[in-house]
Specification:
Blueprint: H1 3-14, H2 19-27, E1 31-33, E2 38-40, H3 43-47, E3 53-54, H4 60-72, E4 78-81, H5 85-94, E5 97-100, E6 105-108, E7 119-124, H6 130-142, E8 146-150, H7 158-162, H8 165-170, E9 173-178, H9 184-189, E10 196-200, H10 212-219, E11 226-228, H11 234-245, H12 247-257
Parallel strand pairs: 3-4, 7-8, 7-9, 9-10, 10-11
Antiparallel strand pairs: 1-2, 4-6, 5-6
């Protein structure tokens, strides 16, 4: 049972929400079929985070329709990933859209106040990795985490990484993003006392094989506590980091029940 349901039940217990109101919220249909998509309305109730729109491969009209359905069913903030500038221009005519071109992400609605246990640090090996990093950072922020960005701190100049030891050591989770040989994840993994999520990027010369070299390096990291997501998967890293950053919140709610 996730945080939203717990909070709802706590409000019933304190009398802030009536039993009928809570029952209505839980009975709301789990998805809405709009023909080309079945929009999941219970995603946040089940998993703690609402459905995110993957923009690649969808027409602007489809994105507009899906977002409209979400808004009509009470979703306050919508994240759209892999959204092209051309599609963003059209979606922006139908909905108030905050478009981040570097990350190819669009946000409809307000970014929530962070409520995680700490900070998510997003670090990149180089400036060329920033588009993937911004996708990760925006994802974590939209889901409710405070994000600290450390860009261009790769191992080609290790002093740049070491200059941010305070941020690295105080993080609740770190996303290490790098192309080339992907060594940043191992270096940060050897410094940090928190989980490290490694993201290989497709940045690099011919023998990097579109990020495969970085992926294999990260998978073979000798630093403990490093996990790896797919090549250029900033969204997956940001989503996982946010989940880790909210684990203690879930524990605290469980203790209150007991």
């Amino acid at each position: 049972m996730n945080n939203d349901i717990r909070k709802l039940l706590e409000k019933v217990h304190t009398g802030d929400v009536s039993v009928d109101e809570a029952l209505l919220k839980l009975k709301t249909k789990p998805f809405e079929d709009i023909g080309y998509a079945k929009v999941d309305m219970h995603r946040k109730l089940r998993q703690g985070a609402a459905e995110v729109i993957y923009g690649a491969g969808k027409t602007p009209e489809q994105i507009i329709g899906i977002a409209g359905t979400m808004l009509a069913n009470g979703q306050e903030t919508i994240l759209i990933t892999r959204l092209s500038a051309e599609s963003a221009a059209l979606v922006g005519r139908a909905h108030s859209l905050d478009y981040h071109a570097d990350a190819r992400c669009g946000i409809i609605g307000p970014v929530p106040v962070p409520d995680g246990i700490g900070k998510v640090v997003v670090a990149t090996g180089g400036t060329s990795d920033i588009p993937v990093a911004e996708e990760a950072a925006l994802t974590a922020a939209v889901l409710g985490s405070e994000v600290v960005r450390l860009y261009d701190v790769g191992v080609a100049g290790l002093h740049r990484t070491l200059a941010h030891l305070d941020d690295i050591m105080s993080a609740s989770v770190i996303i290490a993003i790098a192309g080339m040989e992907g060594a940043l994840a191992s270096v940060i993994g050897g410094l940090a006392d928190c989980p490290v999520i490694a993201v290989p990027t497709s940045v690099g010369y011919g023998a990097s094989f579109g990020g495969l070299s970085a992926l294999l390096s990260m998978l073979n990291s000798c630093a403990s506590g490093v996990s790896v997501v797919n090549i250029d998967n900033g969204f997956g890293a940001g989503y996982l980091a946010n989940m880790i950053n909210h684990m203690n919140v879930k524990t605290q709610l469980s203790k209150k029940e007991n």
